[in-house]
């Protein structure tokens, strides 16, 4: 997988980014994602993620992670099949501020929180969601399994 990392906060250590790169590659292999797949992970502050949350989800508050999937087909859109192009999954946006707050709140490391948010966002890019209790059980079970198998525990 080709993953572009962008740290708009200039605060995410290189070893965290390396960990997240390896984690996403691990998760991608488990999910059968092509090595030619492209995506990005963006680190922002609460102000920037609140703006995205307000503009795209009509929720005027900061959140921890937002995913923008490129492979979703909207109402009235047609799937384009047969093109030999790399698949672009989309973008994951993580609030560094919220990640730090939540790591402290949940009593685990900041590395674990970044890993959790990254996998949560990744699964959204793959079409998983948690709008119903059944979907939530499936998605959260999958993210916990990936994190555990990769060696990241709570």
Task: Describe what this molecule looks like in 3D.
This protein is of the alpha/beta class. It has one domain (2-74, 83-150): Collagenase (Catalytic Domain), CATH 3.40.390.30. It has helices spanning 14-30, 46-57, 96-106, 110-125, 133-150, and strands at 2-7, 38-44, 65-69, 88-95. It has a 4-stranded mixed beta sheet with strand order 1-2-4-3. α3 packs across α4 (110-125). Mean pLDDT is 90; it is low at 76-85.
Q: Quick one: CATH class?
A: Alpha Beta
Strand content: 15-25%
Share of residues in helices = 40-55%
Q: Describe the biggest sheet?
A: 4 strands, mixed
Unreliable sequence segments: 76-85
Question: Tell me, what's the shape?
Answer: globular
> What is the H level of CATH, i.e. the homologous superfamily?
Metalloproteases ("zincins"), catalytic domain
Question: Count the strands?
Answer: 4
Mean pLDDT: 90
Q: What integer value in Å does the Rg equal?
A: 15 Å
How many structural domains does the protein architecture include? 1
Listing every helix as H and every strand as E from the N terminus to the C terminus, the arrangement reads EHEHEEHHH
Give the count of helical stretches.
5
Tell me the structural class: alpha/beta
How does CATH name the architecture?
3-Layer(aba) Sandwich
CATH topology: Collagenase (Catalytic Domain)
Strand order of the largest sheet: 1-2-4-3
């Amino acid at each position: 997988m080709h993953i572009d990392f962008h740290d708009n906060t200039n605060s995410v250590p290189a070893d965290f980014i390396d960990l997240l790169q390896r984690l996403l590659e691990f998760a991608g292999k488990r999910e059968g994602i092509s090595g030619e797949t492209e995506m990005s992970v963006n680190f922002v502050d609460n102000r920037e993620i609140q703006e995205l949350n307000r503009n795209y989800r009509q929720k005027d508050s900061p959140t921890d992670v937002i995913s923008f999937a490129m492979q979703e087909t909207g109402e009235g859109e047609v799937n384009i099949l047969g093109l030999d192009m790399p698949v672009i999954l989309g973008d994951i946006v993580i609030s560094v501020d919220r990640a730090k707050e939540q790591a402290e709140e949940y009593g685990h490391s900041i590395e674990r929180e970044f890993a959790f948010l990254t996998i949560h966002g990744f699964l959204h890019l793959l079409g998983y969601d948690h709008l119903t209790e059944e979907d939530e059980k499936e998605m959260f079970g999958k993210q916990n399994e990936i994190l555990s198998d990769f060696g990241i525990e709570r």
